[in-house]
Design a protein that fits this description.
Layout lengths: L3 E6 L13 H8 L3 E6 L13 E2 L9 E2 L1 H9 L7 E12 L2 H10 L2 E6 L4 E2 L9 E4 L9 H12 L32 E2 L2 E2 L9 H19 L1 H20 L1
Parallel strand pairs: 1-2, 1-6, 4-7, 5-6, 5-8
Antiparallel strand pairs: 3-4, 9-10
């Protein structure tokens, strides 16, 4: 089986070196489940200074990433099965767990385009299938968002995480936040493990965990709770129609 291929177009390829040493993610790369390939637009610049930025038309502060070296870097990337191209930008849609699941399942290759400087030439957007943001804030480049996506996708690939069951009930897998976890000792500084978790009653434990997920989501992320209730209601209505 061919590894899941991740191609990153970036002016800071050195930033991605630690990913090969990052726990289960690094082991996934080492085991050949995923492959990370870096492409520096500077290597595709045509002038003697390897220039990749220029002043913006119309004036303004900062420098803008030029389209030629980015297009050349992108066009040097071989197609590897089903491919999706993502542009890292604060103007993109907020990253969701469902995006990571979709990219890990529906595609064999992700190409991640990282901006830098004040911004990038607008024509670079035409390369992307999707524009993605980590949130309503601005960073110096797209490398950290790209690393976040790589981490989130690779951990979902078969064989990366030891137990596939651990991925099922974690936070955001189905909109609800994850339930609390406890381990030994049963008592620590006056704080005890809930008795139901020590009861051995698996049905009661499952109900307690679900209740905790709903309560925690309602108190911490009411927006997610509203979406979950809407989905739950829609599922019930669909079942009634069958």
């Amino acid at each position: 089986m061919a590894p899941y291929r991740l191609d990153v177009v970036t002016l800071a390829p050195q930033a991605f070196a630690p990913m090969h040493e990052l726990g289960v993610i690094g082991r996934a790369f080492g085991a050949g489940r995923a492959e990370l390939v870096l492409h520096n637009p500077r290597d595709h610049a045509t002038d003697r200074y390897r220039k990749v930025d220029d002043e913006p038309y119309g004036g303004g502060a900062g420098m803008v990433l030029k389209p030629e070296p980015v297009f050349a870097a992108f066009e040097s990337i071989p197609l590897s099965g089903r491919r999706r191209v993502l542009l890292m930008t604060p103007q993109g849609h907020p990253l969701q767990q469902s995006d990571l699941q979709r990219w890990a399942t529906d595609f064999d290759q992700l190409v991640l385009l990282c901006g830098h400087y004040e911004g990038f030439d607008e024509r670079i957007r035409t390369l992307a299938d999707e524009e993605v943001s980590l949130g309503d804030f601005v960073l110096t480049g797209g490398e950290l968002p790209a690393m976040t996506i790589i981490n989130g996708v690779v951990r979902l690939l078969p064989g990366t995480v030891g137990s596939a069951e651990s991925l099922v009930e974690e936070s955001h897998s189905d909109l609800l936040l994850e339930h609390p976890h406890y381990t030994r000792p049963a008592e620590f500084r006056g704080m005890g493990v809930p008795e139901v978790l020590r009861s051995g009653d698996h049905g009661a434990i499952a109900r307690w965990r679900q209740q905790q997920r709903e309560q925690r989501t309602a108190s911490r992320r009411p927006d997610l709770m509203q979406r979950w209730r809407q989905r739950f209601t829609a599922d019930d209505e669909s079942a009634d129609e069958v």
